[in-house]
Amino acid sequence: MMGTNASAVDSKLDHCNVTNAVTYNVLSGIVAAQFALGLPLNLSVLYIFIFSFKFWKNKSVFLFNIVVADFLLVACLPAKAYSYQLGQRRSPNTWMCKAMLFMLFLNRGASIAFLVTLSLDRYFNVVHLGRRNFVKVLKKSPEISGVIWLLLLPLTIPTMLKTFECCNSHGRDVETIYHDVTDTFREVVFFSQILIPFIILLYCTVRTVHRLKKKSVGEKAKLRRAMCVVMSVAVIFSVCFLPCAIARAVLLVMRLRGWQEAEDVVVQVYDALMVLSFTDCLLDPLVYCFCHSGFKDAYLDTFCPAFLHKRLRKAETTTTTTTTTSAGRSLSLPMIEKLQV
């Protein structure tokens, strides 16, 4: 009887051993490549923001916080790649598992919070031009950035509250009220921090595009840059965050219904999409370039080879000049001043 009960309990626990070693070997290689690309990229971006761009003078405090969040993510990638290489979905060390999930939740929450704030700022600048933009005041304040990080802690700490298999026992563990509330809260945080911001971003993007169509030709150049910011953030969400949220929902349905074979497949898909979500640390620098042309210039001046830099400058000069013909002669008209953060 005791053996039967132990087997029943054991069957409900997910020990995180992978069902397909080849899949996770491939994922391990992808994560290692993300780390190899992300570490020098984010270190160089961090260097530019601090020493060349001087973010505190260029009103780019929120952009700097996104860099910090990305750097936290990059720091977690070697441990994730190592676990996958061992044929495990997470570290066998309980505290390492909890610390990894804590860092991933914190990074994701911070990235989403600061990216959404930037998109809202662009939205108010375009759609509600002339009205008081409270977001612009908030995003220039280091104190507000600190408050955002502190507010993220209550949403992240539940990952550290108890021992759980695979850093998630929802539908697996022998449920008690405490376990159920903790796991449910963690799932609510996971989905809400992706789906709610995505709805906000979708609204901002649609309204910004609609506003752009109503503007005259002279104003479109400035608004197009604002639209690029909003759309680039929406693309990052669509590629990096939304797919893993959908896969997570499917995984929970499979788990709660007890469809073990289907779950074994969905788990692999979910982990693969989670690995895809780590790509945001490589895509975020595009947002920095769209948000502030000064960042792009500082980065090129510091790291771009001289001969390539000259070519890029020449190409940029060509593309930012509009030639019109009036009364039989050509006039060179510079584009409208770029929208800055």
TrEMBL record:
It is a multi-pass membrane protein. Keywords: G-protein coupled receptor, Membrane, Receptor, Transducer, Transmembrane, Transmembrane helix. The chain crosses the membrane at residues 27-50, 62-81, 101-124, 144-161, 188-206, 227-252. This is G protein-coupled receptor 31. The lineage of its organism: Eukaryota, Metazoa, Chordata, Craniata, Vertebrata. InterPro entries: GPCR_Rhodpsn, GPCR_Rhodpsn_7TM, HCARs. GO terms for cellular component: membrane. Belongs to the G-protein coupled receptor 1 family. It comes from Hippocampus comes (Tiger tail seahorse). It comes from the Eukaryota. The keyword Transmembrane helix applies. Residues 41-288 form the G-protein coupled receptors family 1 profile domain. It is found in: Membrane. SUPFAM superfamilies: Family A G protein-coupled receptor-like (SSF81321). One of its GO terms (molecular function) is G protein-coupled receptor activity. The keyword Iron does not apply.
